[in-house]
Amino acid sequence: MDWSLQTAEQLMAALRAGDVTSVELTEAAIARIERDDKAINAICVPDYDRARTAAREADQARARGEDRPLLGIPVTVKESYNIAGLTTTWGMPQHRDFLPAEDAVQVSRLKAAGAVVLGKTNVPVGLQDIQSFNEIYGTTNNPWDHRRTSGGSSGGSAAALASGFGALSIGSDLAGSLRTPAHFCGIYAHKPTLGLAPTRGMIAPPAPALPVDPDLAVVGPMARTARDLTLLLDVMAGPDPLTLGMAHHLALPPARHERLGDFRVLVVDEHPLIPTGSAVRAGLNRVADALADSGARVERHSPLLPDLAEAATLYAELLFSSQTARFPVEAYEELRTRAAALSADDRSLDAARLRAMVFTHHDWIEANSRRELHRHGWRQFFAEFDAVVCPITPTPAFPHDHRPDPRQRRIDIDGVDYPYFDQLVWAGVATMPGLPATAIPTGLSPEGLPVGVQLIGPMYEDRTPLRLAELLEEKIGGFQAPR
């Protein structure tokens, strides 16, 4: 039997029934990677020897009667996570030989749950792109069309899952880095509530792996089904034992509803700052129709929805102000000069991003205060609704574009060009206030490319969008293997 595209849930059932061993699953995954990854380039740092050892140990543990959540399941890990004995570079050539001394907390949790780590998946330089390419490991191609990107920055993980290279993967998300690759490759991903899963050890080299709480950034699960997302999130979630874990235990509330017809959903297909492409709009409509057919309350407009244009600007300010904190003085001064030359009337996102790069601490405090007002608005919104369904990006996967200056890149939306980074506005809808968001596939575009949407839920109620994702998977279908 070909186990490569089976779900983690199916593999766990087969392992428990004795129908397959972890060694067999691991060898099958390695064989598939060695056969197919030359064209995809998803696995950038293989770790097959230790994976084989872990698989043998998993089988021995099961023979002793042990049964852990992921015991014997082959998985991959985004390159940006520290794994002792493997390089962590974040795609930066100057760190190509950096070897961390210990595993990231999430890698430790994977191993404690019994997972078999096959290796690491590719990323963009510094995790700062919507594509995954760097001079160390090269370019990761979309499994559906090798001329197109798999997304970024968790593009290697998404491509690996779509190709059958392991059943699960862990990634991270600051600007859609879990959700965009999932959307481009036709898989599932979940951006948890900010702070729900600790990030220690998911840090750019050579910085020490300290238990910090990064603003906006999260780590989260990727899978080929919604149920597998929940399985992996339960392994990842919970406070860092070095900080809040000293005093707190996690108790996520259950999903608000168990039936599709009981959900109250706002479907948003328009953003005031960027249009939605026809393929993505069609995916949103498929979800809206499935919800309506099941008896769910589906609205297209609500005065309770926080202002999306203001939110996009605020997100750009918070995101880009953090990106320049460690810039050299000369580069920072150049940015100050460029920002000072902007017209006071220029309210574009490009202008917001440039101004944010030279924010003062006073500026950041003011922006953070406005974020709290948005969070309050979302609390009021989720008193009346259970979820928002909206795009992840305006288009399916776009062709590779490796021009060094991203300002020269453009995103084509139904034949009209827009600034490359403007497509991030949809990622910011959930990221800026720290809300959970689940990326789900909705089918294929007329060009045969995957199209996904995101389900945004209330803060710390991650099980609500995850359950909605499971129910929609049953209704409209889910992952399809690349053709």
From TrEMBL:
Domain named Amidase: residues: 24-464
UniProt cross-references to Gene3D superfamilies, sorted A to Z: Amidase signature (AS) domain (3.90.1300.10)
Keywords: Hydrolase
E.C. number: 3.5.1.4
Main EC class the enzyme belongs to: hydrolase
Database matches in NCBIfam families: PRK06170.1
Record-linked Pfam families: Amidase
PANTHER family: FATTY-ACID AMIDE HYDROLASE, FATTY-ACID AMIDE HYDROLASE 2
Top-level taxon of origin: Bacteria
GO molecular function: amidase activity
Name of the protein: Amidase
Hydrolase recorded as keyword: yes
DNA-binding keyword on record: no
